[in-house]
Amino acid sequence: MRKLLKFIKPYRSAIITASGLIFIQVILELLLPTLMGNIIDIGVVEGDTNYILKTGGLMMLAASFVILFAIISIYQSSRVSMAFARDLRSEVFKKVEDFSLSEFDKIGTPSLITRTTNDITQIQQVVMMSLRIMARAPMITIGSVIMAVHKNARLSLIIVFILPVIIIAIIIVTKKGVPLFKAIQTKIDRLNQILRENLMGVRVIRAFNRVDYEKDRFKVANKDITDITIKVSKIMAIVMPAITLALNFTIIAVIWYGSINIDRGTMQVGDLMAFIQYVIQSMFYLAMLSMIFIMISRASASATRINEVLDMEPEIKDPENPRIINIKNGIVQFKDVTFSYPGAEEPALKNISFTARPGEVTAIIGGTGSGKSTLINLIPRFYDVDSGSILIDGVDIREITQKTLRESIGFVPQKSVLFTGTVADNIKYGKEDATDGEVRHATEIAQAEEFISNMKEGFSAAIAQGGTNVSGGQKQRLSIARALVRKPKIYLFDDSFSALDFKTDAKLRNALRDEVTESTLIVVSQRVSTVMDADQIIVLHEGTILGIGNHKELLKTCNVYREIVFSQLSEEEIA
Fold it and tell me: DSSP letter string over 266-334?
């Protein structure tokens, strides 16, 4: 929690104001029982009506100020806690945006969602309650004990004896609860993961009739959270009854010994009533303080998880002294590149070397798991190579900023991703200031204009989250248009034509060739028909290059390429 307090510093003035009001509020609350005791002893016993009215009016005024200051302090604490959560959530999101894919793999998307929402909410609640009660409770507890001692030092020994017992009990319960709170957050991660998988894979689940199986998975995860929450609630539930029991026995003891002192004439009835009020105040706020400690226990587990995100250093960073270059040509060179995924036994790519030039189409083909997508992902620095180097216009991509590198790339991922908004919004995602003419031109090249024009609202038609209201082929064409509107120096197409029919595929490739004459075009595909017209075809097999050349050359020199071709095309098509 201590590391996260820096996010509260901008709101110190509000905290100081609230603390000052709380201090005055505490002083007034501590005076009220004494005033009440004086009314009983002087006003009632002596029959002094004027004293009752005067002191009663003073009590009313003090109580009014207590209420007013309480409202202001609650407002300030709520304002600070909300702003704290906002800033912390923004910082976590900003940090996550800088992560490479390796960091996402380490933490996991479901856990990142839980940490950004549930964990920060837990910390926010603690900050709010701490500002409301944490400063107030110790002052009232200590002040009540002092005032009680002032009223009757010998009778106060009851409070002095009972308070340490309660504090020790709270510490023991809190220590037992902390590990369980950490386990709860982990269980929430698991539940979040299952729920996310179910929502994203609902079509597959229903197609394979696995609804009951998924219900059982969710039921088990849900029961795990329920069981552990009940367990920790049982432990924490001991605190309030224990304090209430201690309070009641303390009041019984105070009334018993207080009545003896009254009978002896060493104590007034009003003092006893005031003394009881101080006991109730000290015990009540001690109970509130115990609840804060319980909340802190849970928030400390959440804070540890948040700090894991904030302390995690991205593996891929911009260089301290980046080279300032203007990528003009977009020549991509792989020089003896080897790459392994974290924890993998074997490299995903081994000794990869080739050059992709502007005005040419470089195609990458190979079997499943051969490393095609991995190779593409290395160019925008989603991962960094283990050895070797990737050069853009002769400059190692690790020597320039990620912003400079990625601004020169138009990337179409294997899995098309669309965002909530309109068709135009999704295309302009590639270039915010794109004109309507540029958007329309990009859709023409991507063969998307026809289906967009058939939509009722055209370019203003709404796209649902994840593009669920358009087909797979339409998503791919919109993703391609998004890359084309940037007019970058390098185009990366990661199996981006798989959902297109052969006719649309051919028309799109012909339009692309005419459009990107001054850019480098790298296409990953498993379709021979998509790559056979490429200027350069790279054949990958188990992470290594088995052949580089055009279609005719590879038919003669590369057995793997020949097998792929014969498995997909007839002899007439090959000829």
Answer: SS-HHHHHHHHHHHHHHHHHHHHHHHHHHHHHHHHHHHHHHHHHHHPPPSS---SS-------S--EEE
User: How far is the C-alpha of 22 from the C-alpha of 69, rounded, in Å?
Assistant: 7
Q: What residue type is 37 in one-letter code? A: G
Residue with tokens 């929450």: 229
User: Token pair of 549, please?
Assistant: 């050349």
Q: What is the CATH code of the structural domain delimited by 416-487?
A: 3.40.50.300
Question: Is-contact 71 23, C-beta < 8 A?
Answer: no
C-alpha 422/C-alpha 138 separation (Å) is 55
Q: Are 404 and 380 in contact (CB under 8 A)?
A: no
DSSP string, 88-121: HHHHHHHHHHT--HHHHHHH-HHHHHHIIIIIHH
Domains 323-408+489-575 and 416-487 agree in fold: yes
Beta strand spans in 403-535 (E): 409-412, 421-422, 462-463, 490-494, 520-524
What confidence tens digit (pLDDT) does each residue in 234-260 have? 877 777 787 778 878 888 888 888 888
Percentages of the chain per state (helix, strand, coil), in multiples of 5: 65, 10, 25
CA distance 221 to 227: 10
- The domain limits of the chain are 2-311, 323-408+489-575, 416-487
**pTM as predicted:** 0.71
pLDDT in tens, 390-430: 999 989 999 998 888 888 898 988 888 888 888 888 888 88
Q: Decide: 385 and 458 in contact? Cβ < 8 Å.
A: no
**Residue 192: closest CA among 102, 125, 96, 116:** 116
Phi, psi of 198, deg, nearest 5: -65, -40
CATH superfamily for 323-408+489-575 is P-loop containing nucleotide triphosphate hydrolases (3.40.50.300)
Q: What are phi and psi of 369, to 5 degrees?
A: 80, 15
Residue 575 has pLDDT above 60, yes or no: no
The CATH number that domain 2-311 falls under is 1.20.1560.10
How does DSSP classify residue 550?
-
Q: How many helices (H) and strands (E) does the chain have?
A: 22, 12
491: left (phi over 0), alpha (psi -120 to 50) or beta: beta
Mean pLDDT computed over 141-163: 79
DSSP-based three-state secondary structure for 32? helix
416: Cα within 13 Å, side-chain hemisphere: 25
Q: Which residue has the tokens 């319980």?
A: 294
CB-based contacts of 420-424 (< 8 A; 24+ apart in sequence): 420/463, 420/464, 420/465, 421/462, 421/463, 422/457, 422/459, 422/460, 422/461, 422/462, 422/463, 423/452, 423/455, 423/458, 423/459, 423/460, 423/461, 423/463, 423/478, 424/459, 424/460
Contact predicate 482/419, CB 8 Å:
no
Per residue in 129-151, pLDDT tens?
877 777 777 888 888 888 878 77
What's at 403, amino acid-wise? K
If you ran DSSP here, which 8-state letter would residue 454 be given? Answer: H
